[in-house]
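TL;DR need structure tokens for one chain.
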Amino acid sequence: MDRAKSLERLQRELERCAACPEMIGPVVHGPPVLSSIYLLGQAPGVHEGELGRPFAWTAGKRLFAWFAQLGVGEREFRERVYMSAVARCFPGKAPKGGDRKPSPEEIVRCRPFIERELDILKPRLVLPVGTMAIEQVFGEKRALSEVVGQVAHLDYHGIACDVIALPHPSGASTWHRMEPGRTLLELALKRLGEHRAWRELFPEAKGKGRS
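>> reply
TL;DR here they are.
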């Protein structure tokens, strides 16, 4: 079976998953695009299931505004970058407000889908968005100030790849709007625009990191 068909079959399996009783469906994922870049978010919000795509609401607007600085629009990004997440269903609301974070057990149940996606895609560049995704990719908790703005070289579930971490674009977060976060985000976007995988995937883009 070729890679495209394998990825489509995997997504159909993902859509049927009901392993986590506290999660609220439907399963949310991006299109089955064969890409050298793999974006990993935390989990869909309350609106993403209805709209049928990841990062479809307020945080997504900010995320795609960041990529627009690199000359890449939302449509082009979605068509060329594989968009995944630590958990693929909406976790529900937390008792004290905001979205509930996926539990360790829920993360473990979703992990095999990530491993299989990586095995099919073998991405050269991974973009974890937010602290939870960063922790999963690096294998340990890391302060945003330690990783944002850097290009790391890691083995992620058996795939040797570069990693460029981004802060979560949530409006509830102030990290990317204050120093050192603002400067480190700018540096991360510059590194992203300079990366060979990005330049090859978006050869027409003009923005940070382009001469």
